């Protein structure tokens, strides 16, 4: 038996983890906020070195190589940034707090003696596959994990944006490593004093740091992206895999599982601006247990 949220509304909007006049979801966790600022600073550093040292120095003639690579780099950086913002500011699928009251339970149609899960920490009736996150202090539907780099849980409602974030950061890392290699090759072939507007030691330091950043970000996000895709294809969240939970839910086919995260296939799959159009019908419903 399924019950929609609308029929369970307790009236009034819960302002917990909310900001921007209740429009956005914001987790007030200092560690997460520091990680988010570090992520933005690292993207800005890559912007500075790639644009200022590799692609735009004044001595470099306007070239097709620079223009194409500038377009690719800026497009990836923009899409990664928007995906990051949307992952961070989207409600990941929080279950209303304090809805495990006698009236609510009756309203939901539970019969005397019928079993259901109640979260003792946020006093909510736990839908199937929801887990409590101690950072968000809420139960999150289909919680995969809490990621400090996006200062939010990855759950049913924002997994698409998180996957896109890892995809675009992985892509920009590979692209950056390619650009750094071409710059190194140019400097080694020519003269270190003329291949950059900065002094040779500064140039080497900036390029080495960018290589290190590209490798770290690249390896980390590729592993993350693959584990997310694996979890989606197998219809099993990171937590469920970690806890080796037996699937109590009817496992969806791979196609249905992908569609429940990204919607029907279209170019919108790659856009962090569009919400998945056809969420799986049951995803916003409670399950009786
Ligand atoms: Zn809870
Ligand atoms: Zn969380």
Automatic annotation (TrEMBL):
Name of the protein in question: Palmitoyltransferase
Transmembrane segments: 30-56, 62-82, 161-184, 204-226
Superkingdom, taxonomy of origin: Eukaryota
One Gene Ontology CC term in the entry: membrane
Residues in Palmitoyltransferase DHHC domain copies: 118-244
Gene this chain is encoded by: Dvir\GJ20091
Catalysis performed (reactions): L-cysteinyl-[protein] + hexadecanoyl-CoA = S-hexadecanoyl-L-cysteinyl-[protein] + CoA
Keyword RNA-binding included in the entry's annotation: no
GO MF terms held by the record: protein-cysteine S-palmitoyltransferase activity
Keyword Transmembrane helix applies: yes
Localization annotation: Membrane
Family: Belongs to the DHHC palmitoyltransferase family.
Key words of the record: Acyltransferase, Membrane, Transferase, Transmembrane, Transmembrane helix
Domain text: The DHHC domain is required for palmitoyltransferase activity.
Record-linked InterPro entries: Palmitoyltrfase_DHHC, PFA4/ZDH16/20/ERF2-like
EC code: 2.3.1.225
Signal peptide: none
Membrane topology: Multi-pass membrane protein
Record-linked PROSITE patterns: DHHC (PS50216)
């Amino acid at each position: 038996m399924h019950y929609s949220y609308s029929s369970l509304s307790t009236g009034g909007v819960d302002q917990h983890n909310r900001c921007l006049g209740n429009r956005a979801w914001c987790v007030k966790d200092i560690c997460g906020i520091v990680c988010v600022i570090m992520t933005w600073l690292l993207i800005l550093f890559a912007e500075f070195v790639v644009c200022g040292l590799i692609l735009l120095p004044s001595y470099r003639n306007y070239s097709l190589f620079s223009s194409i690579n500038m377009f690719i780099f800026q497009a990836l950086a923009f899409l990664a940034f928007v995906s990051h913002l949307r992952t961070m500011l989207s409600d990941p699928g929080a279950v209303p707090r304090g809805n495990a009251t006698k009236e609510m339970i009756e309203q939901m149609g539970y019969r005397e003696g019928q079993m259901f899960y109640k979260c003792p920490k946020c006093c909510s009736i736990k839908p199937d596959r929801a887990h409590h996150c101690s950072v968000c202090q809420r139960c999150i539907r289909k919680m995969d994990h809490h990621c400090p780099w996006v200062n939010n849980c990855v759950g049913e409602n924002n997994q698409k944006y998180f996957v896109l974030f890892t995809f675009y950061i992985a892509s920009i890392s590979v692209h950056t490593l390619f650009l750094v290699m071409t710059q190194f090759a140019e400097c080694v072939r020519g003269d270190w004093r003329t291949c950059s507007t900065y002094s040779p030691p500064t140039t080497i330091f900036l390029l080495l740091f960018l290589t290190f950043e590209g490798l770290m970000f690249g390896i980390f996000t590729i592993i993350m992206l693959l584990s997310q895709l694996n979890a989606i294809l197998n219809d099993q969240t990171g937590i469920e895999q970690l806890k080796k939970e037996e699937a109590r839910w009817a496992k969806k086919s791979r196609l249905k599982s992908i569609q429940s995260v990204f919607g029907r296939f279209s170019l919108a799959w790659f856009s962090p601006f569009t919400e998945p159009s056809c969420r799986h019908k049951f995803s916003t419903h409670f399950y009786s247990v």
